[in-house]
User: Fold this.
Amino acid sequence: MKIIAVMSSSKSGNTTEIVNYFEKQLKVMTDVVFEYLYLSDYTIDFCVGCHNCIFFGEDKCPHHARVKPLEDILLAADGIVLASPGYMFSVTGRMKNFLDHVAYNCHRPKYFGKKAYLLSACTKWQESSVFKPLETWASGAGFTMTGKTYVEMLPFPLTEKILNKSKEKIREAAATFYS
Assistant:
C-alpha cells in the first residue's frame, strides 16, 4: 500500500510530528510505503478563478504544468493523508491554494477506490473549520473518507497528559485508516 501525506505545514512543526507518529503507527499494522508531499517544495501561483479547468479541461489551467505533477503523485497512491494546522480558523494558505487548483476534481472525480484521512494540529474551536475544506474536496474528488483527527494544541506548553492523549488519538486514527 502506498500512502501520500499532503503537508501544508513546515517540515518540523506540530502537524509534521502528528503525521510522523501516524506513519509509525500505520507501519506497525501493515507494510506501507509512506511518502510526504510538502506543498512548500512547489511553487504554484494563486488560482485566478478563470474556470478554464472546469469548462475546458484541467490542461487549460494557466498553472497546469505546476499542478499536474502533484496530481500524478496522488493518482499513484492508494490513499492520502491531508494534513494542515489550523490557521485563522481554516487550513493554511498553501493548502487552500492547492485545493483551489484541484477543485475541478469535484466536477470530474477521479480518485475512486482511494482512501483519504484528515489530520490537523489545531484547537477545538478550529476543528470543524479546518476539516471542512479538506473533507469537501476529498469526498467530492472521489476519495473514500476514512476519518479525521485533530490534536489539541492548547494550552502551551502541552502537558504530558495531553501529549499521551494525543498519541492515543493518533494510534486510533492509524487503526481506523488501516481498517
About this structure: The first helix runs from residue 14 to 29.
